[in-house]
Amino acid sequence: MNQMENQLENFKINIRVKISALWTSVMFCYIYDDYFELYIPKKVEGMLNGQNMLDSPFKLFAAAFILAILR
User: Around 23, how many Cα atoms within 13 Å sit in the side-chain half-sphere?
Assistant: First the structure.
């Protein structure tokens, strides 16, 4: 029975490894969403024409500020 207990021992993973894996997975989700958002009809055309939500300097600054806080 003692040999069985040794086989089922939990390994301790460094908290830095866990946080970096979480950060990496979140960044891949952002990239995944940004990439497939380009397949929405007329999305790229609207971005090129300047017809998007971030059409003023204040809105752009607010979005950058919120993303800086959340990331």
Answer: 8
Task: Write down the H helix ranges in the chain.
Answer: 2-7, 15-37, 43-49, 57-70
Q: Give the helix/strand (H/E) hosting 9.
A: none
Determine the Cα angle at 9 with ends 5 and 12, to 5°: 165
Q: Is the pLDDT assigned to residue 5 strictly greater than 80?
A: no
Token digits of residue 5: 């207990």
Distance CA 69, CA 26 (A): 15
pLDDT tens per residue, range 47-62: 778 777 777 889 888 8
Q: For the chain, give every domain's residue range.
A: 14-70
